[in-house]
Amino acid sequence: MERDAQRLGRALVVIVDDRMAQTELDDGMGPLVTELLEEANFIVDGIVVVRADTVEIRNALNTAVIGGVDLVITVGATGVSPRDVTPDATAGVLDRPVPGIAEALRSSGLAAGALDAGISRGLVGISGSTLVVNLAGSRAAVRDGMATLSALVPHVIDELSGLDQS
Asked: Per residue in 126-157, pLDDT tens?
């Protein structure tokens, strides 16, 4: 049984940025990720902006998982500064890590010149039946990361939904 080519699944974008959460300014990152997800045939439920706070990030991820989305993409706060807590918050939500995808994101990002992607501590894993992906916060990291994910995510979602019974 093949997944409908028109719709890969539902997705949610979580932007982790202190300034955006306080001022409600839009740096264009949410719309960029949304556009790339829609090009990959996802229905995007929305964009959530949270501060770089472990509890806020974890709450956004848990809400997405409970809401039944197939994919959550977080953007930002994946590096090595004290405020880069997205991986730490994500680790508390994941049931099973998928380190190969996280490694592929770092490798391809670094090869494409997105230094923040190369030093990202971002995680990828499964929570319930939702794939959770942490991307670094630059436009280059997001564009490259989404290109890398485009080949991998459909396979993961098919496996999680039981459509890939090979």
From this structure: 999 999 999 999 999 999 999 999 989 999 99
Residues 6+ apart with CB under 8 A from 108: 117, 144, 145, 147, 148
pTM of the model: 0.92
Going by C-beta distance under 8 Å and a sequence separation of 6 or more, which residues neighbour residue 145? 105, 108, 109, 117, 133, 135, 136
- Degrees, nearest 5: CA angle 61-127-66: 55
Give which of 164, 166, 156, 163 is closest to 70, Cα–Cα: 156
Distance, in Å, from the CA atom of 15 to the CA atom of 75, rounded to the nearest integer, reads 5
